[in-house]
């Protein structure tokens, strides 16, 4: 085994990690994860059996099917947030409503754990917005011009009106002020 082979594996791992980071950044990843994690205890607890020695403790309720449906829908909504993030607001509102419905129907929302996770995931999904893409390159016109946009001098303004990048408005010579009856030039006494 050569020393170069470990570098290739490290490069592949870095490339996969960067690819996953890009994929995660383009969608409400944490919202989907919290929603799916909230759906699991809601669906699991009504069907779970706890064995304590010879004693079996079952959490079965008459609304066990409702808990299973709510949990499955929350897991589906979490996957929808990941893979079809266009409907993220609808999925977030639906997750919040299902989390609220799970309180009376599914053992207090999976003993409050599933309720809180689904509620947080729905809120994150409803409030998530895609980021603005960054401009990677300057326009060729800006790159060729040595003056920055703030330091540029407007074409119709005289050189005296530009002071450290801020323009000072001046009245142009020859403008006629109708209210005072004189033009913008100098007046001679006469």
Automatic annotation (TrEMBL):
TM helices/strands, residue ranges: 28-45, 57-79, 86-105
Keyword Transmembrane: yes
Key word Transmembrane helix present: yes
Keywords per UniProt: Membrane, Transmembrane, Transmembrane helix
Domain of life of the organism encoding this protein: Bacteria
Basic and acidic residues biased stretches: 174-190
One Pfam short name: DUF6114
Region of interest (Disordered), ranges: 130-190
Xref: InterPro entries: DUF6114
Protein name according to UniProt: DUF6114 domain-containing protein
Organism the protein comes from: Streptomyces cavourensis
Phylogenetic classification of the source organism: Bacteria, Bacillati, Actinomycetota, Actinomycetes, Kitasatosporales
């Amino acid at each position: 085994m050569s020393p170069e082979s470990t570098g290739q594996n490290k490069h592949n791992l870095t490339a996969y990690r960067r690819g996953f980071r890009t994929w995660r950044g383009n969608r409400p990843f944490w919202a989907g994860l919290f929603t799916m994690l909230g759906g699991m205890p809601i669906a699991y607890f009504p069907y779970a059996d706890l064995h304590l020695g010879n004693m079996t403790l079952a959490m079965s309720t008459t609304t066990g099917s409702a808990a299973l449906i709510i949990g499955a829908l929350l897991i589906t909504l979490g996957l929808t947030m990941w893979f079809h993030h266009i409907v993220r607001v609808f999925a977030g509102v639906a997750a919040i409503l299902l989390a609220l419905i799970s309180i009376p129907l599914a053992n207090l929302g999976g003993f409050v754990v599933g309720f809180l996770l689904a509620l947080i995931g729905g809120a994150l999904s409803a409030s998530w917005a895609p980021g603005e893409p960054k401009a990677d390159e300057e326009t060729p016109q800006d790159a060729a011009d040595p003056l920055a946009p703030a330091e540029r001098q407007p074409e119709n303004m005289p050189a005296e009106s530009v002071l450290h990048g801020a323009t000072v408005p001046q009245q142009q010579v020859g403008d006629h002020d109708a209210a005072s009856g004189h033009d913008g030039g100098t007046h001679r006494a006469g």
